[in-house]
Design brief:
Strand content: 5-15%
Helix content: 55-70%
Shape: elongated
Oligomer: single chain
Largest sheet: 5 strands, mixed
Distance between the termini: 120 Å
């Protein structure tokens, strides 16, 4: 018994509270209430913003530690105060104060337990992964393109990205355009990337899409360009364990940034009102009207990006380039041509070719197949193809009749004709679709081509009709365009 008494007398303050040996007022007011207030004040005053920017992994480890400490301290407070209340009653004092303290403890434990279960545990799991360097959102790629004048960010915006982009920009000071092709990521890292883009006065561009946190970085562009078939996506932020209202202050910071960059308030409010479970992808008209996007790039102005990693088993990038129908038709019926296209694409994409440049390299290969297949295609496939060609000629002629000649008869050694400047995306998609129909029709239906005599008769009728309409001089020029 004496040994136990000696242990108690030499015990620490923490141990004495745990065993309930302190007075009830001291346990309840000092160790429970005042300590909780002090811990909350310390957490609120800590410079977490600077901490997460300077060392996100250390920040994540600290958050895990804070949650564990909160759990331990809460348990220590509750057990010690509860035992102190029992001791208080055992000493013959009024049960009212002891019971009041216990009831208050129970209410507090329920609230704290709910916080730990619904916020603490999810955040501990998420931050533990971040502290270990394994971000569950994935990773990213940083790629220098087009003679070191452009840079692509593809993948998730996670911690470390801004440092890697900064190093790449320092090594390649001629970079003026940054491609952002991302589903989003960490808001704090997107803000860091935003600040870097703004400081470097870079133009931002997305070739396939920039969503969620990615839009924070995109907004920082001196010019903000978008591909005609790309999209921007907006919604509220989310983090495991975060409750409604927790991020309101964060939203206000980013709203102010967008207002300063000229975005309309109505657009901003809608973007930040879209729930995280949804994604608002405004039309290009809406993006231009709200001053979010400043323009489309010329098809030869930026390199193609967002194509993914191309290998023999991954045709995602080819699908984007050629559109699915034509790609599938060539792969099924013209495997040699398909392999040739893959070889060109693998060689040229890493060099940062523009859409116009790559189209100029690929289209002649496809056209050679189409011309070879024409005599064997069905009448319907032929008529559809001719109809598209006529619409293309009409579109070019409406801008400048000379463009029709340049398109049909490109000069030897000249740069590829950039049809994307003059033809709508829809018309170019139809061109690829009719080419796919021609290839499939000629390969599957095995139509018999007309005889030479039949061809001569048809050509003579067409020539006579055109000559009557446009004159013999025009027809001679058509028959010998280089003469």
């Amino acid at each position: 018994m004496a040994w136990h008494g000696f242990e108690r007398e030499g015990s620490s303050y923490i141990a004495r509270h745990w065993r309930g040996e302190l007075t009830l007022p001291l346990s309840y007011w000092a160790n429970n209430t005042l300590l909780s207030i002090a811990m909350m004040a310390l957490l609120l005053s800590a410079p977490w913003r600077q901490f997460v920017e300077k060392s996100p992994r250390l920040y994540s480890a600290a958050i895990v530690g804070v949650w564990i400490l909160l759990f331990v301290v809460t348990l220590w407070q509750a057990v010690g105060t509860w035992r102190s209340a029992n001791t208080y009653v055992g000493a013959g004092k009024r049960r009212f104060w002891a019971n009041t303290a216990k009831i208050t403890l129970i209410i507090g434990l329920i609230a704290t337990g709910k916080e730990i279960v619904f916020s603490g545990i999810p955040q501990i799991i998420e931050y533990a992964k971040l502290a270990a360097g394994r971000d569950p959102l994935g990773t990213y790629q940083v790629r220098i393109m087009r003679n070191a004048t452009e840079l692509e960010v593809a993948g998730s915006i996670v911690f470390g990205l801004t440092d890697d982009v900064s190093r790449a920009l320092d090594a390649h000071p001629a970079v003026r355009i940054i491609h952002l092709n991302s589903l989003g990521g960490r808001v704090s890292e997107a803000r860091n990337l935003r600040n870097l883009i703004s400081a470097k006065k870079l133009t931002t561009f997305t070739g396939i899409g920039c969503y969620s946190a990615c839009t924070l970085a995109y907004a920082a562009g001196a010019k903000r360009l978008i591909a005609t078939d790309a999209a921007l996506g907006f919604h509220q932020y989310a983090f495991p364990g975060a409750k409604p209202g927790d991020l309101d202050a964060v939203y206000e910071v980013d709203k102010a940034d967008w207002l300063a960059r000229g975005f309309t308030r109505q657009f901003i409010e809608r973007a930040f009102m879209t729930p995280h479970t949804d994604l608002w992808k405004p039309s290009h008209d809406e993006l231009f009207a709200a001053h979010v996007v400043t323009g489309y790039p010329d098809s030869n102005e930026v390199a193609m990006s967002g194509m993914g990693t191309l290998d023999a088993a991954n045709a995602e990038g080819v699908d984007l380039l050629l559109q699915v129908p034509l790609f599938e038709a060539l792969k099924t019926h013209e495997r040699k041509t398909y392999d040739q296209l893959m070889s060109v694409i693998r060689a040229e994409l890493p060099r940062g070719r523009s859409r116009a440049e790559l189209r100029g390299m690929v289209l002649p290969i496809v056209q050679e197949v189409v011309m070879r297949k024409l005599p064997y295609a069905s009448d319907q496939a032929l008529m559809s193809f001719v109809e598209v060609i006529m619409k293309q000629m009409a579109a070019l002629r409406s801008k400048d009749p000379a463009l029709c000649y340049d398109y049909l008869f490109p000069a030897a050694g000249a740069a590829p004709f950039d049809a994307t400047k003059y033809l709508s995306a829809e018309l170019m998609r139809k061109e690829l679709a009719t080419m796919a129909d021609l290839v499939r029709s000629a390969s599957e239906e095995k139509h018999k081509p007309p005889s030479s005599a039949e061809i001569d008769q048809s050509v003579a009728r067409v020539y006579a009709a055109l000559s009557e309409r446009h004159g013999d001089a025009a027809m001679r020029k058509l028959a010998n365009p280089t003469g």
